[in-house]
Amino acid sequence: MGIDERLLAAALAVGLMACGTRVVDARPDGTRGGDCYADGTCDLGLECYRDICVPTAPPGRDGGPTAPPPRRDAGEPLPPPDAGPPAVSHDVIASGSGVLVAVFPTAGGILVVDHSAVRLMDREGSELARFEPGREITAAAFDGTYVGIADRAKLTVLEPDLASTGETFLTEWCASAAVMSGHRFVCGPSNDWDRIFTTYDMVSLAALATSEPETYNGIPMTRVPGRDHFITTSGGSPSDLHLYEVGTTGAALYLGESPYHGDFPVENVFSFVGDPATHVVTHQGLMLEIFAPGCDMATTSFDRDCFIRDGDLGTLPVGGTYEMMTRDAAGLIYGLDDPTDRWFDDAYCEAGCVIHRVDPTTRSILASTPHTGSFVSPVAMAHDPTSSALVLGVHTAGDRSDGYTAYEVRLSPYE
User: Fold this and answer.
1) What is the pTM (predicted TM-score) of this model?
2) Are the C-beta atoms of 3 and 12 separated by less than 8 Å?
3) Residue 32: CA atoms inside 13 Å, Cβ hemisphere, count?
4) Whole-angstrom distance, CA of residue 412 vs CA of residue 91
C-alpha cells in the first residue's frame, strides 16, 4: 500500500504490543491500532494494512490513497460481493470461487466439479448443464460412462450430460474416490488411520463391500489404468505409494507399498506406463514397476515388494520435477515443467512453464509447448482427445493452510 514505515511502527507501538508479545491495550475494531472491519476498512483517517488500522499515508507521498474508505456503522451489513468470477477468456473455459474437486473431459464437453456444483462446459466456455446437490461435494470419479458425485451425505450417479440415474446414502462421506470395472465406486473416508473403504454399485446403487482397516496409507486415490487396483499417497514424511486391489467381492484389499521410505520424494503427482499399466512414473521421472515379483496376495504382507525402481523417464534435469502429469490414449505422457527455482509458497509458472509430451517407450521428449498463466496450486491435468488439448484445473487464490478460494479450468491446445 506504500504506507510510511514510521507511521506503521507508530500505530503498532501505540495500539497493540508492549513487553515482548503481550497485548496490553486492545483497541476496538476500526480504530487506530485495532483490527480492520470484516470488509477491510477502518474509521475515517485510517486505512487497513495487514489487517491492522494505521494512519492514512499523505496523498502523493508514498502512493497512499487520496481518500480513506467511508466508515461502516456498527450493525450495517457488509457491501455485496462483486459480480463474481471474471468472464472466461482465451484458454480459460471455467472459473469459480471455492475449491475445485475434479475435471473430466467428455465428448460433449468438460465436466467441472467444485464443492458446490458440477458444470458441463463447452470448449468455448459456455455452460451447457449444471447439477447442484445442495450439500458440499467432497469427491468425484468418472469411468467414461458414469460420474460418481459424493457429497456430505449421498452418492449421486450422473451421465456425462448430468442427467441423474439415481442416488444412495453413504455410510460415511468420501474424501476421495475411484471407479473400478463394472461401475464400482470405491469411497475413501477422510481419516488416514484405520481407513475403511466402501464400494458401491453405480447401477444398482447397492453397497457391495467394505475393506479391512489399514493404517496411514494416504487420502488421495488414483485408479491404475486397465486394472482393478488403485494407489494412495501417504502425506507424512517420508511419503510412500500404497497399492490396493478390488476383487470380485468389491472389497478393497491392501497389497503393498513402495519400499524406499525417503530415498526419493513421493507426491500425488504421477502418471503410468502401459495398458494395462505396468509402471508408475513419479513427478521426478522415476519409473517404478508396480507389480514386481512378490507383489501379490500369495506373499505375506510384510514381504510384498511393490513399486520397485526400474529406470528413469530421462526427460528432466537432476532435481527437476513435473508439477502436473497425465497421459493420452496412446500412452504418451504429458508433464508440466516449471523451470524456475520456486520457494514453498511461490506461485507456479510465474515466469512461464513448459509442457513436455514424452514417449515412455523411447524415453524421449516428442514436443514441448509453452504454457503461460500462473496459479497457486495444481488440481488436475487431463488429456482431451476431442480438442487435442490438455485440460488444466488450478487454484488461483487462497492457500493450503486457510483454504483455496478461487479456481480456473484452462484448455491448453497441444497440436
Assistant:
1) 0.77
2) no
3) 12
4) 6
